[in-house]
UniProtKB/TrEMBL annotation:
GO cellular component, one term: plasma membrane
Residue sites binding [4Fe-4S] cluster 1 per the record: 360, 363, 366, 409
Sequence positions that bind [4Fe-4S] cluster 2: 370, 399, 402, 405
Full protein name: Ion-translocating oxidoreductase complex subunit C
GO biological process: electron transport chain
Function: Part of a membrane-bound complex that couples electron transfer with translocation of ions across the membrane.
Membrane topology: Peripheral membrane protein
Pfam family, one: RnfC_N
HAMAP family: RsxC_RnfC (MF_00461)
Superkingdom of the organism of origin: Archaea
Cofactor (UniProt): [4Fe-4S] cluster
Alphabetical UniProt keywords: 4Fe-4S, Cell membrane, Electron transport, Iron, Iron-sulfur, Membrane, Metal-binding, Repeat, Translocase, Transport
Domain 4Fe-4S ferredoxin-type intervals: 350-380, 390-421
Length: 452
């Protein structure tokens, strides 16, 4: 399996954002001058739509201030200078009852890579989950986490059971990509709970329900094509379960909780080793001397990660977090790796100059490819002018951030980046409004019934 290296040189300082998820930011539990240990909780928030934050290192809190965040904004962050003799909170396995698991996940700070706190996916307020899916089709975090393929597959199945227990779901599935032979081979033929696992293909009308019955099992492993796009969960839900997620709804509205391999692994580690979410695997590529997948402490700056990868090749032009098409360009490399950072891509100065944008020609290619029927060119133009209300009226919040509009644009306009900027600004405005407004005025209702 693809090797994942462990960062050998510890950074001198880490910047740990107090908000690494969609929802409410944490309040700091420490202050300047405090000494903290690796694994110590340093931020929490009492409301449900938040996840705790832990220190990934031992050291002294030198500041709590607004600092750059990979989402492009500034976020209140705890800055910790590492001590020479690291101390660690004792990590011990936890015996957690089913009814306590959701709170346990919140407390361990586990979030999905697209930003949603995992406990909210598993136990959404006012909804019932009956099936949990582990989406292993974006497998960039898988390789190298494990010594052997069977260790990976059996841990993932154990993690799926934990996720099912947390959600109360009676059924669960691990979904692999049908061209990911390493993962398919890791599961196929594995003897788990006294039964051999068979990886079943999702073809035509054969969705997971077919295999639950056919294999007389509440847990199955299936494979399907890779669906491109960070937030295309609705399409994924339909492909795997056959349940349609109506416009404006989310998979949990039809009883489906979708978790990533990363959060499944984090939950496994939290229960079996007592370890909170303090490190993550990042894929570093582009103009660096030694591109690789690397396990880093959350809060490590991109600069330190790139140095560990042998440094830049030549003059860096652009740094992009989370994918060259769908990611966010960074204005500094002093930005920290957060729980939602999956990759860092470095472009050379030459590549950036070649990629300079020109005026929109209104060719409508971006409109043709948008899977959710938006008018990306128009929304991007509104965003560029700061007209976020108009973006909202044009249903910007339905954008699934697939990046197709930016990829096809002959004028090289940063369509996705402008859309994300507006979405972030709208979300931020709503957060600021929330304490003053009735929630009923801020959220649209959903008529999903969950039928197949
Ligand atoms: S606006 Fe662009 S990024 Fe958003 S869904 Fe449409 S094509 Fe994808
Ligand atoms: S693809 Fe680019 S140039 Fe064409 S309409 Fe969309 S934003 Fe404008």
């Amino acid at each position: 399996m693809t090797k994942v290296n462990i960062m050998k040189k510890m950074p001198e300082k880490v910047i740990i954002p107090l908000k690494q998820h969609d929802g409410t930011a944490c309040d700091p539990l420490v202050k300047k001058g405090d000494m903290v240990c690796e694994g110590q909780k340093i931020g929490e928030c009492g409301v449900y739509n938040s996840a705790s934050v832990h220190s990934s290192v031992s050291g002294e809190v030198i500041s709590i201030e607004e600092a750059p965040h990979p989402n492009g904004n500034k976020v209140n962050s705890v800055i910790i200078q590492l001590s020479e003799e690291p101390e660690c909170v004792d990590f011990n396995p936890k015996d957690v009852q089913d009814s306590e698991l959701a709170d346990f996940i919140k407390d361990a700070g586990i979030v999905e890579h697209y930003g949603f706190p995992t406990h909210m996916v598993l136990k959404p307020e006012g909804k019932k989950i009956d099936v949990v899916l582990v989406n292993a089709t974006s497998s960039e975090w898988i390789g190298g986490h494990y010594d052997t393929p069977s260790q990976y597959s059996s841990q993932m199945l154990d993690a799926l059971k934990l996720l099912m227990r947390a959600s109360g779901a009676s059924k669960g599935a691990i979904v692999l990509r049908n061209d990911d032979l390493e993962s398919i081979n890791a599961f196929d033929g594995l003897n788990y709970d006294g039964k051999p696992i068979t990886v079943a293909p999702l073809v035509g009308k054969r969705k997971i329900n077919y295999y639950f019955k056919d294999m007389s099992s509440d847990i199955v492993v299936v494979s399907q094509e890779h669906i491109y796009g960070k937030k295309i969960l609705d399409l994924f839900t339909y492909n795997v379960t056959g349940r349609k997620v109506s416009f404006g709804c989310v998979p949990t509205d039809v009883g489906v909780a979708i978790c990533s391999v990363k959060s499944a692994k984090a939950l496994y580690d939290a229960v079996n080793a007592g370890k909170p979410y303090i490190e993550t695997v990042v894929s570093v590529s582009g103009k660096v001397n030694n591109p690789q997948k690397i396990l880093v402490k959350i809060g490590t700056t991109f600069k330190d990660v790139i140095e560990e990868c042998g440094g830049y090749i030549g003059e860096p032009g652009k740094l992009i977090a989370n994918g060259s098409i769908t990611g966010v360009a960074q204005y500094t490399d002093e930005v920290p790796v957060s729980k939602t950072t999956t990759s860092i891509y470095v472009q050379s100065a030459d590549e950036v100059v070649r990629g300079e944008s020109v005026d929109c020609t209104h060719c409508a290619r971006c409109v043709d490819v948008c899977p959710v029927n938006l008018i990306p060119s128009r929304i991007a133009a509104m965003s560029d002018q700061g007209r976020f209300d108009e973006c909202r009226q044009m249903h910007i919040m339905n954008c699934v951030e697939c990046g197709r509009c930016a990829a096809v644009c002959p004028s090289k306009i940063h369509v996705l980046q402008l859309i994300k900027y507006a979405k972030n600004s709208i979300e931020k405005a709503y957060e600021d409004l929330a304490p003053k407004e009735s929630p009923a005025n801020l959220k649209l209702g959903c008529g999903c019934s969950g039928g197949e």
